[in-house]
């Protein structure tokens, strides 16, 4: 799988490249500025891009803007955005086109290599990887609301993982239950919240996020 | 239009002439007496009272100048220090401060001019129309009983002795009416300009007041940044630094253990990783408190939007900004909004908040309204007082309207200039 990595700090870029190579990714390019990233995305057409939000030359949200522009040119181009901080505002912008293949994670998540690589693969496959912090912020905000209050603690756990972009199998593994149990929970959740159920992982995430975001 | 204007001016002029004569003469006499009685001791008690009445009276006239003639007259009085003593010593201190304020003496001079020149201008701004009517009343036949009873009546410069002269008076009255249309508003304006010449601070006084204000705000700014640095130092010292030390120690132990007891070493490795994650999250919080990343990346508009999204209650956000502002201004505005929103969430138990951020005519205006409990504490030491001090460095203002039971409305204004292009940082 061919990856473009965009990160301006040498140590982190080098670390990312090593980690990805260790998991048998092919590094198509490792760049350090916004314009370079734009060019790499357009010319190399990687299977997935791992992009830092803040890049030179402006040191603002250049990486995010480049990623969004590239996705406008090539809809569904898988991009995993990394940042020192997560903002719902940015998450919304990334999810806005609804075409999947998007990830948004704190840089800390690279500490757990297995999980991080799993997220990269998920995004490359057109799925979604949302940072748990984004989801927990959304959840804490809606917790006073009636329909969310109706969920059992287990259902809430399932919902949180679902919103992060995990498949039923992954949720089952994390919570030490069977996949059938997870499927039952998810259909309960969809029922209680009045959402139309879906088996497509990406659609599921969007539905949950849209629900959480409402109001 | 012009007629209505003249009629309104007449009414206003009449009120002014009355106020000027009664108010200025009474207060002038009282002030002079009160100051004279300071020698006897009684004046010490009465002077602050009388002078505060004088200031009230002058402020009333400033208000009217703005309302009736569109003339703004700044208030020149020096503020009292916040740590005034109470009781008799406080009274003496207050009295001395008042007498030392040049604005007090200018008020005295103003009242003296006001009861003469101010009265005349006020009179001239209203007298024409009634006098014109009087001319017509004479011509309508009232001249007859006056003359028959041996009255020696003049209408302006016309001696009234027959219907003919009375008719002339009516004609002159018409002229006066036309004159009033043009002169009355001018006279009213003149009246307030006269007030301004004595009530507004002299350039010297304005400058002194400005210097005093700048000294205070600079003091606050320096204090503020020193306190911030202390807080950052403490947070780093107790947080990330301590965690890195712990991590270093763990790594050292792991090095020693790795061959003897790999199981234990593995356990310590995962602890070290947890520590580093903690350190990162503490640093992230710290960075947010120093300069929020979204603010650096996107500017004020998106930063307050992101802030609103992080609040536990729904915040309806309306942002209309032409571009970005100086970084310190953006940061001050951001932290002000952050503090106000946090207050609304924590203390006011608000269920809904409306946040309005816009820029017009050189002024950044932010209004935060919540439907919470109200009764917000604005006294010294509260978070809001801190915001006010921070905004003071930019000549910004904070206004809080929070009746008990809500709603609370906090408005802040910062004079600043936007620049449309994205700045380059570092």
Automatic annotation (TrEMBL), chain A:
GO-annotated molecular function: DNA binding
Modified residues (4-aspartylphosphate): 52
InterPro entries documented for this protein: CheY-like_superfamily, NreC/VraR/RcsB-like_REC, Sig_transdc_resp-reg_C-effctor, Sig_transdc_resp-reg_receiver, Tscrpt_reg_LuxR_C, WalR-like
Domain of life of the source: Bacteria
Keyword terms of this UniProt record: DNA-binding, Phosphoprotein, Transcription, Transcription regulation
Domain named Response regulatory: residues: 2-122
Domain HTH luxR-type, residue spans: 144-214
Membrane-spanning parts: none
A GO biological process held by the record: phosphorelay signal transduction system
Name listed for the protein in its UniProt record: DNA-binding NarL/FixJ family response regulator
From TrEMBL, chain B:
Transmembrane segments: 12-29, 35-54, 108-134, 154-183
Residues covered by the Signal transduction histidine kinase subgroup 3 dimerisation and phosphoacceptor domain: 228-295
GO MF term set: ATP binding; phosphorelay sensor kinase activity; protein dimerization activity
GO cellular component: membrane
Reactions catalysed: ATP + protein L-histidine = ADP + protein N-phospho-L-histidine
Residues of the Putative sensor domain: 13-199
EC number: 2.7.13.3
Alphabetized UniProt keyword annotations: ATP-binding, Kinase, Membrane, Nucleotide-binding, Phosphoprotein, Transferase, Transmembrane, Transmembrane helix, Two-component regulatory system
Protein name as it appears in the record: histidine kinase
Species this protein is from: Streptomyces zagrosensis
Highest classification ranks of the organism: Bacteria, Bacillati, Actinomycetota, Actinomycetes, Kitasatosporales
